[in-house]
Amino acid sequence: MHTQAIASRSELEGYFRGGEKPPEKWLLGLEHEKLVYTSEGTPITYEGEGGLLSIFQGLEAYGWSPILEVETGNVVGMRRGGATLSTEPGGQLEFSGAPRGSAWALHRDNMQHLEELGAVLKARRLHALMVGYRPFDAVEHVPYMPRSRYGAMRESLAERGSTGALMMLMTATGQVSLDYSDEADCVRKVVVLARMAPLLVAMFANSPLKGGRLSGHMSFRSHVWNDVDKARCGYLASWFDGSFSYARYVDWALDIPLLFLRRGGRYWTPKLSFREFWKGGFKGEEACYSDWVDHLSTLFPEVRLKQLIEIRSADSVSPQLTAALAALLRGTVYAPGALDEVALLLPARSLQEHVALHERAQIQGLGFEPLARDAQALVALASRNLQAWAPEDAQLLEPLAALVHERRMPAEALSACKDMPTLLSRFAMKG
Q1: Rounded to an integer, what distance in angstroms lies between the CA atom of residue 318 and that of residue 388?
Q2: pLDDT of residue 1
Q3: Alpha-carbon span 226 to 234, nearest angstrom
Q4: Cβ contacts of residue 153 below 8 Å, gap of 6+?
Q5: Do the Cβ atoms of 50 and 91 come closer than 8 Å?
Q6: CA-to-CA distance for 406 and 18, rounded, in angstroms?
Q7: What is the pLDDT of residues 326-368, one digit of tens each?
Q8: Average pLDDT of the residues in 307-314
Q9: Which residues pair with 128 in a beta bridge?
Q10: For 316, how many CA atoms within 13 A lie in the half-sphere containing its CB?
Q11: What is the predicted pLDDT for the residue at 430?
Q12: Cα 237 from chain centroid?
């Protein structure tokens, strides 16, 4: 089916139905990115003694196996069991753990990975930073990793907005994915998570610096996304007018331009929306199911729908706060009755009102009173639910609860750093 031409619209909507799972099979996923630097404070390259390839090779001693890009033969990541460690365009390392039933299990896997990675980095005099945006680097000094997908994205995004290169090379995030049981459950979760997104931007804001100076944003990473590509980023209007469904997501995705198309061992960048490609083809090639799956992976809304729901609003933060992010979402989305509680706590706004709140979160974070108040209430709600339903995860919320209680964010500590040596000494992961 993956190489057959798409025959009907039902196949496009059917992709999302293929992700439906009964509640007893719901799991959580975690992605945690970090920026890697040399001891001199420069971004790593791909090759060389302290390059990305060397890091991947060092991890083979821990049972990780290389992931090769078909088009080039380059090692672009590592795999062990259900977990992967892959490179982002600017050499950011993304750990994607195997799906687990609890936030605690996700955290345990992440900590094991970080212990192994720390040993590999220490042997190479490298340092990992978990922040949302490179605080002191200029974008032109960050090398692209040699992966064909990224070359195509670089070309396409340059025509779509002003900050595509910043997003690709300079940013790092923490993401959580969730399951859904059917279309109605998916709709409820996506809509409520969209309402939560500004709170997540505010609570996990960890990117106040740009070029060594205060950027004017607690989450400059989130701000960068404002102009990556307005068509494929941000919020869907249907999340706020009561009309969201699989069909509406398909409608939205169909009219977004392709970032790339894989054919004949290379990446093409046709100037077509997916709808145009499906109806008219490209160089004699028809649209296939695998093209649809590829296309969905190049859409970047705050809440992304694939065969799971991805929440994309948090900066990269410490592993402890990343675990708190997973626990927060388990306690507000999976816990019995939680979605109803969150919907009451965060009433619906218009799209314009919500976007304005999102931009406030980028600039002020928890310094904006309504966001601070709602964040405290949301964390308290999650804590109550977890203590009653999943106590193993409740303790993971403690570092986040402490910050939110004092209306503080990770960005505030980062703001005080004046140079790269200070940043590495205070915030780099210790090998």
Answers
A1: 26
A2: 39
A3: 7
A4: 89, 164, 168, 259, 260, 298
A5: no
A6: 43
A7: 999 999 999 999 999 999 999 999 999 999 999 999 999 999 9
A8: 98
A9: 36
A10: 26
A11: 62
A12: 21
CA distances from 134 to 28, 175, 421 (A): 28, 18, 14
Secondary structure, 3-state, 178-200: ECCCCHHHHHHHHHHHHHHHHHH
Helices then strands (H, E): number in the chain? 18, 15
Measure CA 11 to chain center: 26
Q: 417 near 135, Cβ under 8 Å?
A: yes
Count CA atoms closer than 13 A to 355's CA, side-chain side: 14
Question: 101, exposed or middle or buried, with CB in 10 Å at 0-12, 13-18, 19+?
Answer: middle
Whole-angstrom distance, CA of residue 97 vs CA of residue 29: 6
DSSP 335-373: STTHHHHHHHHS----HHHHHHHHHHHHHHGGGSHHHHH
Q: How far apart are the first and last CA of the chain?
A: 46
Three-state SS letters, 100-162:
ECCHHHHHHHHHHHHHHHHHHHHHCCEEEECCCECCCCCHHHCCCCCCHHHHHHHHHHCCCCC
Written as one letter, the residue type at 78 is M
Rounded-to-integer distance, Cα 361 and Cα 368, Å: 7
Structure tokens at 30: 């975690």
Residues 399, 327: Cα–Cα separation, whole Å? 11
Q: Is the pLDDT of residue 196 over 70?
A: yes
Burial 178-191 (b: 16+ CB within 10 A, else e): bbbbebebbbbbbb
- Reduce the DSSP state of residue 29 to 3 states and report it: strand
Q: What share of the chain is helix, strand, coil (3-state, %, to 5)?
A: 50, 20, 35
- In whole angstroms, what is the distance from residue 172 CA to residue 221 CA? 8
For residue 249, give the H/E element and its range. helix 246-254
Tokens describing residue 263: 């054919």
Handedness of CA 232, 166, 360, 427 (dihedral sign): positive
Angstrom distances, CA of residue 215 to CA of 73, 210, 315, 364, 406: 39, 5, 15, 11, 23
Integer Cα distance of 42 and 129 in angstroms:
12
Angstrom CA distances, 233 to 61, 142, 312, 386, stand at 39, 24, 11, 32
Q: What is the mean pLDDT of residues 413-425?
A: 94
Determine the Cα–Cα distance for residues 293 and 118; give it in Å rounded to an integer. 34
The torsion region of residue 209 among left (phi > 0), alpha (psi -120 to 50) and beta comes to beta
Q: Which two tokens stand for residue 158?
A: 């340059």
Our measurement of the distance from residue 112's CA atom to the centroid of its chain's CA atoms, rounded to an integer in Å, reads: 21
